């Protein structure tokens, strides 16, 4: 069984903000694989279903971003999964351009408060994470205001494409393993486009 958790903030006022791109990925997975998000437990909105023959729990922690680890720890303990191989956490990253994604098997929080909470709660950095690029904040912006703000129309278009790619990456992780997903998706968009044109 896998737990796939997207990080974000509850309440409609935060919907579609940069900080909630993890929720966006879970929403698309829910629609794509017809997994209803109809359970409220473990301080999260959850859905139980199947993706490519694997049992999964989709989760959107409702603790607010900075306490995400409280919910994920409850989920991990309740379902008795191994975080290193059966937990996937999706979250926003200001160090990547909008539209970029990066998959890692371990690592630090990189200054992300939600990830700090998850790592602190689990007491390990060893779990799969998908970082979703939202772009660095302009110099005059406060970081909190920036990540709680909305994408421009142009940014939203490329981020929506990245959300779809993230769901495809999760498909690969579940069927072929995280290394295969990293090899395929941890590339700049220009490099991927060049390689695809060479294959055509």
Descriptive key words:
200 residues; Rossmann fold; 8 helices; 43% helix; alpha/beta; 7-stranded mixed sheet; single chain
CATH level 1 name: Alpha Beta
In CATH terms, the superfamily is Peptidyl-tRNA hydrolase
Q: What separation lies between the terminal Cα atoms? A: 36 Å
Based on CA atoms alone, the radius of gyration comes out at 16 Å
User: What's the number of domains?
Assistant: 1
Mean pLDDT rating: 93
What does this structure look like?
Helix 1 packs across helix 6 (153-176). The protein has a single domain, classed as Peptidyl-tRNA hydrolase (Rossmann fold, 3-Layer(aba) Sandwich), CATH 3.40.50.1470. It is built from eight helices and seven strands, in the order E-H-E-E-E-H-H-E-E-H-E-H-H-H-H. The longest helix is centred in the last third of the chain and has 24 residues, at 153-176. A seven-stranded mixed beta sheet has the order 2-3-4-1-5-7-6, sandwiched between helices. With 200 residues, the chain is an alpha/beta fold. It has helices at 21-32, 68-79, 83-86, 113-122, 143-147, 153-176, 178-185, 189-199; strands spanning 2-6, 39-41, 44-51, 54-61, 87-93, 101-104, 128-133.
């Amino acid at each position: 069984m896998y737990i796939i958790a997207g990080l974000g903030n509850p309440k409609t006022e935060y919907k579609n903000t940069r900080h909630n791109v993890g929720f966006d990925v879970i929403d698309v997975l829910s629609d794509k694989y017809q997994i209803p998000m109809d359970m409220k437990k473990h301080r999260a909105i959850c859905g139980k279903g199947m993706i490519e023959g694997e049992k999964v729990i989709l989760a959107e922690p409702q603790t607010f971003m900075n306490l995400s680890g409280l919910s994920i720890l409850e989920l991990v303990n309740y379902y008795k999964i191994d975080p290193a191989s059966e937990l996937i956490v999706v979250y926003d990253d200001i160090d990547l351009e909008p539209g970029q994604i990066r998959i890692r098997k371990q690592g630090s929080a990189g200054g992300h408060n939600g990830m700090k909470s998850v790592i602190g709660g689990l007491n390990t950095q060893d779990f799969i994470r998908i970082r979703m690029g939202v772009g660095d904040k302009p110099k005059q912006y406060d970081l909190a205001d920036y990540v709680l703000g909305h994408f421009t129309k142009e940014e939203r278009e490329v981020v929506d494409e990245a959300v779809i790619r993230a769901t495809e990456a999760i498909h690969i992780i579940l069927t072929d393993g995280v290394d295969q997903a990293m090899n395929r998706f941890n590339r700049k968009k220009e490099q991927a486009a060049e390689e695809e044109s060479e294959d055509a």
